[in-house]
Specification:
By secondary structure, the protein is α/β, with parallel strands linked by helices. It contains six helices and five strands, in the order E-H-H-E-H-H-E-H-H-E-E. It has a single domain, classed as 5'-nuclease (Rossmann fold).
């Protein structure tokens, strides 16, 4: 049983029904789980809310809410905040250019023993973090 922490880019690809991402999701074991953290939810909803009113915004909002209802969002806890501090220090020391939201997502993945699913290669360079990119074919 594996847990996968979906980052914002991968979540967006799922909203677009990216065939490569959906093939990977379809190949998961039924016991595996997909999770997000509130930062991903916030980034996705911000992206939808900033769009001008119209058909595209309505369609994307519907897709976002459908996926948000299907993928569990895990709370940010004190242990995740502690991990955030460790990762932020490590990334600064190693010269990584991760945004604060990406660091929160990585910290949540570590604390939940989840593989982070992201296209950003910097995640794979962090200690204590397993990362996969589902946007590219194997």
């Amino acid at each position: 049983m594996a847990k996968y922490m979906i980052d914002t880019t991968t979540f967006s690809a799922m909203m677009k029904r990216d065939p490569i991402v959906y093939a990977k999701v379809g190949s998961l074991d039924p016991a595996d789980s997909l999770i997000i953290c509130p930062n991903v939810r916030g980034e996705i909803l911000f992206g939808v809310q900033k769009l001008p009113e119209g058909k595209r915004k309505t369609e994307l909002a519907s897709k976002a809410w459908t996926l948000l209802g299907a993928i569990e969002s895990r709370d940010i806890t004190d242990p995740i905040a502690d991990e955030y501090a460790r990762i932020k220090n490590e990334s600064k020391t190693k010269g990584k250019q991760l945004s604060d939201n990406d660091i929160w997502i990585a910290a949540a993945a570590v604390q939940h023993n989840a593989v982070i699913v992201a296209a950003d290669r910097d995640f794979s360079r962090l200690s204590q973090l397993s990362a996969e990119d589902w946007t590219k074919q194997a």
